[in-house]
Design brief:
The complex is a heterodimer of chains A (about 350) and B (about 70).
Chain A: H1 11-27, H2 34-41, H3 48-63, E1 68-77, E2 100-101, H4 104-116, E3 121-126, H5 133-149, E4 153-157, H6 163-171, E5 176-178, H7 188-191, H8 197-209, E6 213-215, E7 218-220, H9 226-239, E8 243-248, H10 265-278, E9 283-286, H11 290-293, H12 295-303, E10 309-311, H13 323-332
Parallel strand pairs in A: 1-3, 1-10, 3-4, 4-5, 5-6, 7-8, 8-9, 9-10
Antiparallel strand pairs in A: 1-2
Chain B: E1 3-4, H1 31-37, E2 53-57, E3 60-65, E4 69-71
Parallel strand pairs in B: 1-4
Antiparallel strand pairs in B: 2-3, 3-4
The chains are: A alpha/beta (about 350), B mainly beta (about 70).
Amino acid sequence: MTTQATVATSDEASDKILVDARQQVLEKGIGLTQEQLEDVLRLPDTALPAALQLAHEVRLKHCGEDVEVEGIISIKTGGCPEDCHFCSQSGLFDSPVRGVWLDIPELVKAAKETAATGATEFCIVAAVRGPDIKLMNQIKFAIDRINEEVDINIACSLGMLTQRQVDQLASWGVHRYNHNLETARSYFPKVVTTHSYEERLETCNMVKEAGMELCCGALIGMGESLEQRAELAAQLAALEPHEVPLNFLNPRPGTPLENQGIMDGKDALRAIAAFRLAMPRTVLRYAGGRELTLGDLGTREGLLGGINAVIVGNYLTKLGRPATADLNLLVDLNMPITELQKTL
Amino acid sequence: MNRVSTATAGFCGHCGEPFDGGSGPTSDVHGRCGERLAMEPPRYCTACRRRLKVQVTPTGWAAECSRHGVLAP
């Protein structure tokens, strides 16, 4: 397990950091700056419950009590030409993940199963640099079939897009588009060398301008410094995405980060609080790696510490908690699931 | 389609290495693999060590070996 060293902060200093954050974020709705986020990420363990409580209050005040539930599925697995060092689907690494295409009937079946959990979002993901004509045609066909049979919002994650592809997806009724920044600009070249941070930003900005909701996430625990974690939160906040999925590294066999180790659970909770305090109105979603990093207890703490959305069930190549486990937890916490309201 | 049973396994479904003579992936050598297999689908055919074609869905997974067919969850 890797632990991010926290700077010893006195109780008095911790109190001041949280009092200031309460006034700025809870009362005024203004997210913390990068420097302020660094302070939150350095809070000692003794101040963590108070930080999570504040993040929870911020979430309740600015987002409400609902929790948004989503299911995700891979339509094209493996064989990606990019070299994202955390990803088992890169064709450049000696990963055991083989290339697979999902057929449309199976995709529709998965959408139905996802909707049956109460989820309002179904995200179709492809391991590609960007979609080609074949994939775009399949996506169009899939969207039409799902819309015929399932009442659920459709999101896509297909890598980097051209303006034409952005316009096509928007016209087909794609509700939300996912394209993660993954890590801080200053750390990005250590994680990805086959495309740039700016290319990612370009797709994100085109998605927003086309009127689709932008889902732009983070993957933490890849060896970035605490300062870079704060930098990432601030850069995401500047982008103003509708949703931020928060992933924790689950080191994958055969990838350059396979020996990175698992992030410390308390550091992960500090990051959850910090991301909420950076983005008081954003949907902050639990995504991959939480099972390993936080376990059952930590999952509960995060939902009471700023998280207001979950990916239910399995991920793209890994298994998640059973959907019922998360749904029962939401019942225990008296957190209602967001009801479906198609926006497009 | 054939269905492969882990009861006849010669290789670990997680790492693809041969079993050490234990009763399954919870043996000493593959203890971590057994933990992993509770959280992710197998990636190798336990009969022949070929990499499996695996499709994960929100509520399940399916795996197929080109030689031995479908592996049941």
